[in-house]
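REVIEWER CHECKLIST
Item 1: Sequence provided? yes
Item 2: Single chain? yes
Item 3: Sequence as submitted:
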Amino acid sequence: MQVPSHVEYERATSVEHALSLLSRPDTRVLAGGHSLIPMMKLRLAQPGVLVDINDLAELSYIRLDGGQLRIGALARHADLLDSAVAGQLYPIFHDAERVVADPIVRLWGTVGGSLCQADPSEDLSAVFAAARAVAVIRGQDGDRQIPVRQFHLGPYETVIGPGELLAEVRVPVHPGVGSAYEKVARRVGDWSIAAAGAVLRLSGHRIEDAGIGLTAVGAEHFVAAEAEEFLRGRAPDEENLREAATIAAARCHPVADQRGPEDYKRHLVAELTARALRRAAERTRAGR
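Item 4: Structure as written out by the authors:
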């Protein structure tokens, strides 16, 4: 039988109330709960206090504001999948959300919860890293902004400290941007065997900037930084995109497990990165 250890439960009525509750020792935030609750049942996570933030409607939104796509931490996966503005500016969000778990999880699971869980196989961490998003962390003394590429310290560990809460994720909006996400899983809705996200920004016929996010293959901060650097200033042709994909596969650190051996996962990284870069380039030219 899987039974969690004893835990106290508090339901926050405002952001300020949540922050005061989170200042207590040994607390965890409960949002969607699809990752945290199973871990508690297995006693892999044993918080002393659960702070339920599901009533905080002020953290549930997706809007374009001041040249940024702003996504509240309590926006559900289904909200992001249904958002026309998010899909128009960054098709990578719709690509990824279509392959996140199943419809039930997408209806209840939250964007912020996925980032804060910091699971190495989580899709949105790589997506936001590729898009060079910024996390807004709220505390009782105000907000601080941390690039998503610096948000994760390691598996299941983030920079959020005691008494703090992820409030929002901000994604910069630029002209000439295309994006895409590619994933392979054992079955529909499963964790990734490997996945790759790409964001390309073109200036004329050259790549001005590139973002490549990798999931489930041990990429530091979910990013293929060397492959990004290779692409800057180059033409988005097949040869360059393939070479960047090869670099990404060589620099990640997949671990052999029940989903496959290391060389298979490296092969997937190369193929999926090339596909994502190709689709991102095509969408850039199509104005998406």
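Item 5: Key structural point noted by reviewer: The first strand starts at residue 8 and ends at 11.
Item 6: Recommendation: ____
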